[in-house]
Specification:
The protein is built from 20 helices and 12 strands. It has 433 residues and is α+β, with helices and mostly antiparallel strands. It folds into 2 domains: 2-149 and 195-205, no CATH class; 261-424, no CATH class. It has a 4-stranded antiparallel beta sheet with strand order 3-4-5-6.
């Protein structure tokens, strides 16, 4: 993974924590979780406060994600709102954290001047044993504490202020007044800087969970659709009157569900030609075939002319695989007629020609599912399914890893919003970028 680290393709854009007072606040939060203090004097954190270096020190990648549910967080600065989430069991952790930061910005800004916030995103379950446990998570509550008890002190000061205002002769209680002065020195003026978060409960919308090899959960009003491996505990048995179950290898039903619920953008010349997505996938298919045939091939010189030469020399292999010719024919038909009949294609191949509807709230989740259906497209896999990307990256040859890193650096990392906007119709998008 060193090549990924150097290119900032894993654990990129972390916030450096090296100031002694911030390290100490982080340690107090760790102690609040019952974890040992870190001996490190410098480390990087993501939006939730997860630090890869501390995970290595503790020998526990899930030190902020016990049982892979009820995610913990440590907030040292409001600047964390602009960071990615680099380690999570639920695809919507970043979105929930963004909602928390947005809804409680004033309190977070005030508290982190003097203290750190930490706590848990509490679900309705403490451990996930089957699908029913995942489906039980309808909303989450942020349980928030502060490393130096600033929240408790602010609450105590608020109570004393109210008592001073409402109880006759309370101003004569010298001990109370002295306590108020002492608390005010620590909290500041709570009338101007409210320290208690305003909103702690948020809806748990559609999501992907990494339990049981990966489970997609989509919500449409009162109807829920689950897409996963049919061997997952309680598949088709949990709430059958309310939940539709689709096996992950049932490409026809998955496609029909996504299309019927308007989560897909079907192939039309209006976006296909401008986006270059199908041409991108065609190139991804060929480089995947090259790696399959010769894992030691040097793809550094693989421009379009080089690739076309390779295609001509390996025409039989390309035809046998079938994906590249299908994409080429689709682009020709779409250019000529403006659209293409997907019903004429095998269900699995339909995913080659579509992307998530850019305006749909589940666009990231749908693109993640599509990227699993088109695993040769490592760029889309990296953008929408990083855990799947990292897993597959470990199986690649050294030469192809070098090419993957170079390609991602040259394309996606160069300008993420512009790249996403062009290929997928998605630009800036809080909680997922």
């Amino acid at each position: 993974m060193n090549r990924l680290l150097e290119a900032e393709l894993i654990y990129g854009r972390l916030l450096d924590i090296s100031e002694p007072h911030l390290v100490e606040r982080y340690n107090k939060a760790l102690e609040g979780f019952g974890l040992p203090r870190t001996k490190l004097t410098q480390f990087g954190i993501d939006m939730t406060g997860f630090a890869p270096e501390i995970a290595d020190e503790l020998g526990d990648r899930d030190y902020l994600d016990p049982n892979r549910v009820n995610r913990r967080f440590i907030i040292l600065t409001p600047d964390q709102a602009e960071l990615p989430v680099v380690h999570t069991s639920f695809s919507n952790t970043a979105a929930l954290m963004h909602e928390f930061f947005d809804a409680n910005a004033r309190a977070i800004n005030a508290v982190t001047i003097r203290d750190a916030l930490y706590g848990e995103i509490e679900d309705s379950v403490s451990v996930v044993d089957d699908i029913d446990d995942l489906l039980s998570i309808n909303e989450v509550r942020f349980r928030v504490l502060s490393a130096d008890d600033l929240l408790d002190k602010a609450a105590e000061l608020r109570t004393l202020v109210d008592r001073l205002k409402t109880v006759p002769n309370a101003w004569t209680d010298d001990a109370m007044l002295e306590r108020m002065v002492e608390l005010a020195r620590q909290t500041g003026d709570i009338r101007q800087n409210p320290l208690v978060p305003d909103q702690l409960v948020f809806r748990h919308e559609a999501f992907w969970a990494n339990h049981f090899g990966g489970v997609f959960v989509f919500l449409d009003g009162r109807q829920t659709t689950v897409i996963c491996d049919p061997s997952v505990p309680d598949f088709r048995r949990s709430r059958p009157w309310q939940v539709s179950y689709i096996a992950l290898d049932d490409h026809q039903r998955i496609f029909e569900f996504l299309a019927a619920t308007k989560r897909l953008e079907l192939p039309r010349a209006s976006w296909v030609e401008a986006s270059g997505l199908l041409q991108h996938r065609a190139e991804m298919v060929i480089t995947s075939l090259i790696n399959r045939v010769d894992p030691r091939a040097d793809l550094a010189k693989a421009d379009r002319i080089w690739l076309q030469t390779w295609i001509h020399r390996n025409a039989a292999l390309v035809a046998e695989d079938g994906v590249y010719p299908l994409l080429q024919e689709a682009m020709r038909v779409i250019a000529a007629s403006g659209e293409i009949r997907l019903n004429d294609l095998a269900p699995r191949n339909r995913f080659l020609l579509v992307r998530a509807a850019p305006a749909h709230p589940d666009r990231w989740l749908v693109n993640q599912l599509i990227s699993q259906m088109t695993p040769f497209d490592f760029v889309s896999r990296f953008v929408f399914d990083k855990q799947g990307f990292y897993k597959s990256y470990g199986t690649l040859s050294e030469k192809f890893r070098e090419y993957v890193v170079e390609t991602l650096t040259r394309t996606y990392l160069k300008d993420k919003p512009a790249f996403r906007q062009r290929l997928y119709g998605i630009g800036e998008d809080k909680g997922n970028a």
